[in-house]
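Regression report. Comparing outputs from two consecutive submissions.

Submission 1:
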Amino acid sequence: MKSLIIPLSIIAFESLIQLHEHNMRYFLYKAAEEESRKRKKPLLVIGRPKGRHGFGDICLDIEGCECIYGNDCISFIADVRELSKLFDEKSVVTFCSHVLEHLSLDDCKKAIKEIKKVSDIAFILYPNKYSLIARIATIWNYHKIETLEYLWSINPKGYFIIE
C-alpha cells in the first residue's frame, strides 16, 4: 500500500492542475465573450476549440476550425504570427488558448505582438507551470520548453490578459 502513495499523489496533483486549467479556460472564455459584447467587437478565437470552449465570432487555426454546434462563426486557416494581415488594429477581442507553447520563443514573441496589435483586449492561456503533462510534452518537442519558461515568467498559473 505504501508503494502506491507517491504515484497516487502525483495523479491527484496533476488532476487538480488539469481541473484548474479547465476552469480557467471556461472562465476566461466567458470573460472574453462578455468583453466582446461590451466593446461591440467580434470575438476572435485562436486555436481550434476541440469542444473545450466556444468558437467565438471568428475562429482562426493553422489547420482551420469547423464551426459546429450551430455556431455562425467565420473560420480562417491562418498563422497567429500574421494577424495584422487579416485584422485592423484594436479591431477584435481575442481568446487564445494553448497555442503559443507550440511555437519557438521568437515566434511566440512575434505572435504576442500581433495579438496586442489587433486586439482591444486579449485573453491568453497556456499550460500551468506545475503541469506534469506540459513538461512531458516538451520531451517530444510538442511544447517548446524555452517558450513555456518565457510564458511562465509572465504568469506561472498559465494565463495573462493584454489590454
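Submission 2:
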Amino acid sequence: MTQQRIDEIDISHIKIEDDSIDESEIVNEIDISHIKIEDDTPVDNFQSEKQQRLLVEPLYSSWSDHLPFIAAANVGVFYGLKQDAIVPDAFLSLDVEMPTDWSKKQNCSYFLWEFGKVPDVCIEIVSNREGNELGKKKDLYARIGVPY
C-alpha cells in the first residue's frame, strides 16, 4: 500500500452544501449586555491595594517588548456567559494584547472568549478566611485551567 500525500488527494468529487446554514443563526458577536463588570463597591483596604500594585507595576516597568502580556490587579476574569467573574488580587496573561478601545464593554474585563485563554498566573493575597481564597477560589482556578 502506497501512502498518498494530503495535498495530492483529489476531493473534487465531494459535494459540500452551504444551504444548510441559516444566516440568521450565525453569531458574529457574543451578547454580554447582561454581564455586570463593575459594582462600585470598594472591597479591599489600602494594604491590599498596595500589595496588588506591587505585583503588577514592576512587570510593566521592566518587561521587554518581545512578548505581549496583560498584568492586572482586582479585574474580573469571566470564564462563562452565565457565571459570575472570579476576581484575583492580581493576574498575568502572556502572549495577549491589551485592547485599545476601552469604551467597549468586552474590553473592560478579562473575558476568556475574547482573549482566547485563561490567565497564566492568578495570585490571591490571603489575609483572612473571609474570601475563601484557599478553598473555593483555588478550586475554581484549577477547574477553569489556570496553571499557576
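Expected: both submissions complete independently.
Actual: both completed, but the second showed a warning that disappeared on reload.
Relevant detail on submission 2: DSSP finds three helices and five strands in the chain.
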